[in-house]
Amino acid sequence: MRSKTSSRSRAFWPVIGFVLAVSFAVIAYALGPAAYDFLRRSLPNFPPPGVPRGQWELILSGIVFVILVMLAALVIALAVPRNRSRVNEKKLVKERELMMREKKAKKVLQRGINRQARSITPKRR
Fold this sequence. Notes:
Elements: H1 4-11, H2 13-42, H3 53-79, H4 89-120
C-alpha cells in the first residue's frame, strides 16, 4: 500500500516536467546565437547561402533543446528506483521442469494411443 505523501508528490510530476521543459526551451533559445557563432567559426562552409541567420539560430535552438531533454530523460531514468521483479528464479525453474514433465507425459500417452490404434486396425494387403 502506498503512503499518502508519495501519491501527493507524484501528482506534481507533470507540472515539474512542464516547468523543466519550459526552462530548457529558454536555455536553448539563449544558446542559439552562441551555437551559430561557434559553428560559423568551426566549420568553413557553415552558413549556407539563402538561409537567414535567425532561422539558423532557431534550428540550432531546437537541436539544443532536444539534447537537453534527452539528457534530462537519461538522468531521470537512471535515478528512478527499479521495481524488483516478484518472479523468483527458483519458481521459474520449477515451472519449466513441470512443463517439460507434462510435455513428456503427453508424448508418452500419445505414443501409447498410437500403438493401440495400430494394433486394433487391420492391416491392408
